[in-house]
Amino acid sequence: MKFAINPYIRRAWNHQWYADFVMERVIYDHEIIYIDKGNMKFTIDKKIYIADEGSCVILPPNKLHKKSTLHFCKVLLD
User: Fold this and answer.
1) DSSP E strands: which ranges in 1-78?
2) How many CA atoms within 13 Å lie on the side-chain side of 43?
3) Core-most of 3, 29, 57, 69, by most CB within 10 Å?
């Protein structure tokens, strides 16, 4: 069986939010997030998760989610 993956990277950047900023949204891409400082609290399907510094989080497309963190690197891809 041959398996190939060829993702299209839509956007990649290093980002910083304020500690009290929380965004709730649905996006149509996969979202890969690396937490480089602090931790991130995020909710998917009303379940709360905490990711620590140095963690990598993969959020699936078409899911309502919210997150808050200070510093992270992020990639959106199809």
Assistant:
1) 9-16, 23-25, 30-37, 40-44, 47-51, 56-59, 65-68, 71-77
2) 10
3) 69
Cα torsion through 66, 52, 12, 48, rounded to 10: -20
What pLDDT does 19 receive? 61
Compute the distance between CA of residue 76 and CA of residue 26 in angstroms, rounded to an integer: 13
Q: Which helix (H) or strand (E) holds 18?
A: none
Ranges of the chain with pLDDT below 50: none
Candidates 76, 72, 68, 60; CA nearest to 23 is: 68
Question: How crowded is residue 72: how many other Cβ atoms within 10 Å of its Cβ?
Answer: 23
Instruction: Tell me the C-alpha distance between 18 and 22, whole Å.
Output: 9
Please report the pLDDT score of residue 24 as a whole number.
Answer: 82
